[in-house]
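Propose amino acids for all 112 sites.
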C-alpha cells in the first residue's frame, strides 16, 4: 500500500466506525457524517488522485501522421481502413478490371 493511500484508508475506517457507533446508539434516525470526516475524506481522495496522476508516465503530444504511419507499418492498414473498405468507396472500374482478368486467367487454365 502506498503512503498516499494511507490517509484514504484511515478515513474509510473512520466512516465505518462512525456508522457502526451511530447505528448502535440510535436505530430510529440516520445521523449524517461529521464535518471533519467529510473534509478529511475529500482531501485524502484529492491527494490520492494527484499522486496517481503525478506518478504516471510522461505525456507526449500526439502527432497524427507519425501515429498513422506507425499503424500502417504494424497492421498493414491505416486509421481509415474501415472507410476505404465500405462499398461506397470501392473503385468499381478497378474491381471490374480485376474480375475480368480473373475470368480470363480462369478460362485460360481450363483450356490448357
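Proposal:
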Amino acid at each position: 500500500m502506498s503512503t498516499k493511500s494511507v490517509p484514504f484508508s484511515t478515513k474509510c475506517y473512520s466512516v465505518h466506525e462512525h456508522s457502526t457507533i451511530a447505528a448502535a446508539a440510535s436505530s430510529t434516525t440516520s445521523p449524517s457524517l461529521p464535518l471533519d470526516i467529510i473534509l478529511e475524506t475529500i482531501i485524502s481522495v484529492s491527494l490520492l488522485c494527484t499522486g496517481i496522476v503525478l506518478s504516471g508516465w510522461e505525456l507526449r503530444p500526439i502527432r497524427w501522421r507519425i501515429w498513422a504511419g506507425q499503424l500502417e507499418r504494424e497492421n498493414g492498414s491505416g486509421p481509415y481502413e474501415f472507410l476505404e473498405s465500405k462499398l461506397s468507396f470501392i473503385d468499381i472500374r478497378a474491381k471490374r478490371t480485376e474480375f475480368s482478368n480473373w475470368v480470363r486467367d480462369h478460362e485460360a487454365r481450363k483450356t490448357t
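Residues 6-25 form the longest helix (20 residues). Residues 15 and 33 are 7 Å apart (CA to CA).
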